[in-house]
Amino acid sequence: MEIGIKILNDIICRFSKRYPLINLDVILTNDLIDIVKEGYDVAIRGGALKDSNLICRKIMSTKLHLCASPDYLAKHGVPGHPDELADHTLISFPYPSPWALRLSRGDESVDLQAQVKFRTNSLDLVLKGAWKGLGIGVLPSSVCSTDVKAGRLVVLLENWRAFDIGLYALFQDRKTPKKVDLFLDFLARELADIEQTFI
């Protein structure tokens, strides 16, 4: 839902303005809705997808970052290696499982070992917790880029890479109605432009 609030709402409004004859029924929720049963044309979902009979089209990818406020880092120090995160507190979104994150650099990979202060299904809460110095936030570029560029957050362990998070459009049939094709193409173009602004 928060990806809708952060990114998709403006795109949907621009689409509606460009195609005023297409009626939209937009539902923002973190719940997995059966779009076939509920009669929706498209679902937009982020993260790891479960198997389904739906057609899947990747429309955006965002990197995952470890971010902390300058105040937090002044008090607790800046980790130079993933092993040092054991001495830090993390704030996480439960992805892809309640807590699993591997960082890689070349041939080396490390499973993250740290105290998780809290888990939440709200990326905004992870962001706010990191701002307030509660710990190191695990955040996608789509959520943290503005705050990193403004200096409110610092990206840690930049030479290490976590997995990317995909944003996907799911729909029922390869022969989609023209309005769905227009929407998906518009969405993909707009998201490609936005993706270029991410850290």
From TrEMBL:
- List, alphabetically, the InterPro entries matched: LysR-type_TF_proteobact-type, LysR_subst-bd
Q: Which Gene3D superfamilies match?
A: 3.40.190.290
The record, for SUPFAM superfamilies, names:
Periplasmic binding protein-like II
Domain LysR substrate-binding: residue ranges:
5-191
Q: Which family does it belong to?
A: Belongs to the LysR transcriptional regulatory family.
Q: What is this protein called?
A: Substrate binding domain-containing protein
